[in-house]
Amino acid sequence: MKYQPPCTITTEILNLVAAISEATGRVDAFADRERPLRLRRINRVLTVRGSLAIEGNTLGEAMITAILEGKRVAGPSREVREVKNALAVYDRVHTWRPESEKDLLEAHRIMMDGLVDEAGMYRRGGVGVMAGPRVIHMAPPAGRVARLMGDLLGWLTVTDVHPLIAGSVFHYEFEFIHPFADGNGRMGRLWQSLILSRWNPLFLDIPVESLVFEHQAEYYRAIEESTLRTDSAPFIAFMLRMVLDAITAFTPQVAPHVTPQVAELLAALDGEMSREELQVALKLSDRKSFRERYLKPALAGGLIEMTVPDRPRSRLQKYRLTGGGRRWMEQR
């Protein structure tokens, strides 16, 4: 019997696929010429920074840019090596085939060169998935890794599932197997980008990893929930939300009209904040005025979003910038 990863295709997943496809089409409509090299370099830096920061690398965008330009930087030698390796991998990503085990192992060899003894080969011992100091998943025994990876790559070769879903399924199953002694997180994110790029090369230039870093706690929760359910649907939905946010931020569109009050709200919003926290930050005591002049226009303009959209009045409700909101702030 051929291997089939356990996955429920929910209405939310289908809606996200449709929304991403539409947004990707809008970007393609504007792609009359090659994207400026500077923009591609910026996005590459954001990609590398986001993926490595999830693993604890502390080097910022300025230092990664300097490394990309061949300059010497004063930073921890291991972290500098991680950045150099990741940049070398992303430079070659377009040459690899997602379903090729040989290419996967070669990518890992470059990614982890000089960082682990087993670079470019499957692990020989036990390993777990960590969320900070907490173990959220103990991976299968090392003796099963080659067989499990063979099944997963074989499934990827023949599946007719949409690449947006297939990439997320592969990413989750890869993290579940945890085939390498180290570097599994960055390799899983890399391989999902590679799978997406075979559907549309645009995804080689979109820093999805940067958004995953911004929502790191949700990333680990989605892995844990999918493992508990024995169903990758929660992880797929999470990753597709990240992809949609990234492609939306990348989409050329008319800038929304932003009132001075909304601009103040966007400037005050730091990560995820509750209504009470925002009112304190803005020094506003009138709840109705805040809601009508600040909160509602920002939501209506797609500049901020709720963290609990299904329950607008939830006591746990918080707000955060959308891709459009972040883009507006950057342009400002």
- Number of helices, where a helix is a run of at least 4 consecutive DSSP H or I residues: 15
Instruction: Provide the low-confidence segments as ranges.
Output: 32-36
Rg value: 21 Å
The ordered string of helix (H) and strand (E) elements is: HHHHHEEHHHHHHHHHEEH
Classified by CATH, the class of the largest domain is Mainly Alpha
Percent range for β-strand residues: under 5%
Structural class category? mainly alpha
Tally of DSSP β-strands:
4
CATH architecture of the largest domain: Orthogonal Bundle
- Kindly, what is the distance between the CA atoms of the first and last residues, rounded to a whole number of angstroms? 56 Å
User: What is the subunit arrangement here?
Assistant: single chain
The fourth-level CATH homologous superfamily of the largest domain is Fido-like domain
Which term fits the overall shape? globular
Question: What features would you highlight for this structure?
Answer:
332 residues, mainly alpha, Fic-like fold, Arc Repressor Mutant, subunit A, two-stranded antiparallel sheet, 15 helices, 5% strand, globular
What would you note in describing this structure?
- With 332 residues, this protein is mainly alpha-helical.
- It folds into two domains: 11-250, Fido-like domain (Fic-like fold); 260-331, Arc Repressor Mutant, subunit A (Orthogonal Bundle), CATH 1.10.10.
- Helices cover 59% and strands 5% of the residues.
- The protein is built from 15 helices and four strands.
- Strands 1-2 form a two-stranded antiparallel ribbon.
- A hairpin with a 2-residue loop joins strand 1 and strand 2.
- The longest helix has 19 residues, at 11-29.
- It is globular, with a radius of gyration of 21 Å.
- The N and C termini lie far apart (56 Å).
